[in-house]
Amino acid sequence: METNTTNNWSWDNFVKNVLCLTHPEKSWILDESMTWTHRFCAQVLSYGEIPKHVAFILDGNRRYSKKNCISMQQSYAKGFDKIFETIQWCLRLGIEEVTVNTSTLNNFNKTQEEIDALFDEIKTFLKRDILNELGVCITFFGNISTLPDDMVKVLEKSMLMTKQNNKISLNIAISYTGHDELTNAFNQISNGIKNNDLVESDLSVEILNKCMYTYPSPPPDLLVCTSGETKLSDFMLWQVN
Description:
Blueprint: H1 11-20, H2 36-45, E1 53-57, H3 61-68, H4 72-93, E2 97-101, H5 112-126, H6 129-133, E3 136-141, H7 149-162, E4 168-173, H8 178-194, H9 205-210, E5 222-225
Parallel strand pairs: 1-2, 1-5, 2-4, 3-4
Helix pairs in contact: 1-2, 3-4, 4-5
């Protein structure tokens, strides 16, 4: 009797033949840019309850810079690479919306060199054609009036170029803090009452929601702090519960 001595079993074949072929609608698992470990984990995750909206607190750039003996600009660049990688993962998992904080009002207390480095990397990130090709719809929120004119033009161009995309929404907080957002919301309501556009009896959670920078985006289902810190970092204080 002829014996087959060839052993074709491997984890990669297992992922392809068992996980993927039994669920052909999830064929993105064969993406060659992912290792088999990444593909396996993504496939397993996709069978659980997937949040529709995930927010990320991006923190720790200075610590990363010091630990790895690199400049802050290099640290920011690596951070935006991770944002892009995260978007790809979220697309594969079927997450519909991602929110990230790229800069806070407190960033303006840093040196001009560091501020310029951050803004340069934001611009570089937004120029990636692959974002548009992947169907990423980009929006921005925060105290945009504090930004330089050239930065505002970059944001406007990015929103205009991606507004028709519908694969995933990427909300980028820039020049943002939760306290500033709440203050702005209360000022809007106060002005509305002064101008007789609102009366005190109109005040409600719904009205406050509509006054937030993030409106009409829904609250995140999951908030992730990437630095290992267990703090909100003044991010989405009203939306997170």
